[in-house]
Amino acid sequence: MSENNAARKRNSNQNIEAIDLIELFKRLLVPRNVFIMLAAGLIVGTLNFVYSKYVMPEMYTSSTMVYVSNNSSVVISDGVDTQTISSNRTLAVSSVVILKSDFVMEEVGNILLETYPESELRENFSFYRSGDGKIKIKGSSIASCFSIAPIDETEVLRITAVTQNPQLSADMCNILVGVAPDFLKSVVGGGTVEAIGEAQPATQKSSPSNSKNALTGCFAAIVVVAGIFLLTILMDNKVRNSESFKSKFEFPVFVEISYIENEDTKGKKKRRRSRSLENDDSDIFDGVGGEQSFRLTETFNTLSNNISVALAMNDDKVIVVSSPDENDGKSTVSVNLARSMVKLEKKVLLIDLDLRKGALHKKN
Q: Mean pLDDT in the chain?
């Protein structure tokens, strides 16, 4: 049983392919991919900037601070009692919950309705009709504009309001500070709320930040496109060179044959194909430059020598030249390999097994 587990573990380890991060990033950062990523980032960043500037509403923030304390605070000769400090902090935390409750927010809404026209308030809040037929502002709608929190866990609360109207934001903070003492006394039974300054209308918008939104969109687009490219690379199982072939398979590599490109086709649209042998009585390397022709000849001579050595080690006499797709160069390799082996004074029988588009029988 243990041997079977060990065998399965060895097989699973063999199926795990190591990822070369340097090679991965080299394939990712090719000029074409970099151009697409930058173009996507520029387009999305520009769209985000336009949307932020012309579609998103401008928001203004005003804030004030209040000090919350207990009526039972006792000052002793050498400082404030720690129990008093703890009691004040507890009251501050409780005050946050009370001040953001619906009945406090609705009271703030009633005062706003007395100060502002309903049409202006509808740009920031939701309304409802009460049981007595009056139009009122929803407390939850007002609460969503407020932020109330203790400062550094002290008895001081920061009250912040954010709306589309700078004056409205300031008035909301000041109104809440005005109604807070009565509600705290009625709920807690004591305590005082003292304002530390008055909220002032903001002179500049707090959001949206057009440049920040543009940069965020640009960065997000680049990351998404790069992720798509990385996923494509990781899922790509094509054999691109001899090293890739050796890493995926356990077959020996005798030689690498470079792509054959005719001089009369340079500069035109390239296709992954070898030269057709049909109706061609010239040499297989005609139209190829002298240096390239010599290099290809030596390549096929090396291939024939390596195959001859491999065949000498066993009794195999048949060589099959095949590929998964058409126009991969099977005919080119077959003809030139046969010629190279003839030069080694080998007896060669070249058989074309392509019964649909055979071309070797037309070659002299």
A: 79
